Task: inverse folding
C-alpha cells in the first residue's frame, strides 16, 4: 500500500477527548471507522455507543454516509501535508430505545382504591 494512500484520522469525542490517531487506507469505509470507534470507546464515559448505527461522524461540517470511503470524504483544501484529519463523533441512541426508556419514566402510577360502604 503506497504511503500517500494512507490517511491519519483522530476522532474527537463530545467531551473534547480523542480516540486515535489511527492510520487508514483511502479505500476504508465510514462504516469501518465507526466499528473501530465503538470497539475502542474509552471506559467510564457517561455516554457510550452500544452499536455502530448510534455513531455519527462529522468531517468539515458534514455528516458522513456509511457507504462512502475515506478518500471520497476528504477535503483537500482543509488538509496539511502530513497532518491528521480530525472527525467529530456524535452518539445518538436509537429512537426505539429512547421511546422505551421514556415510556418507563413517564408511565403513570396505578392507584388502587378500595372503598366499602356500610
Result:
Amino acid at each position: 500500500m503506497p504511503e500517500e494512500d494512507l490517511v491519519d484520522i483522530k476522532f474527537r469525542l463530545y467531551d473534547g477527548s480523542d480516540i486515535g490517531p489511527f492510520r487508514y487506507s483511502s479505500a476504508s469505509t465510514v462504516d469501518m471507522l465507526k466499528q473501530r470507534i465503538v470497539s475502542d470507546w474509552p471506559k467510564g464515559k457517561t455516554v457510550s455507543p452500544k452499536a455502530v448505527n448510534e455513531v455519527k461522524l462529522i468531517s468539515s461540517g458534514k455528516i458522513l454516509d456509511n457507504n462512502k470511503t475515506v478518500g471520497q470524504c476528504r477535503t483537500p483544501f482543509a488538509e496539511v501535508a502530513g497532518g491528521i484529519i480530525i472527525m467529530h463523533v456524535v452518539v445518538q441512541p436509537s429512537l426505539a430505545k429512547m421511546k422505551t426508556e421514556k415510556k418507563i419514566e413517564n408511565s403513570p402510577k396505578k392507584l388502587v382504591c378500595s372503598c366499602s360502604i356500610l
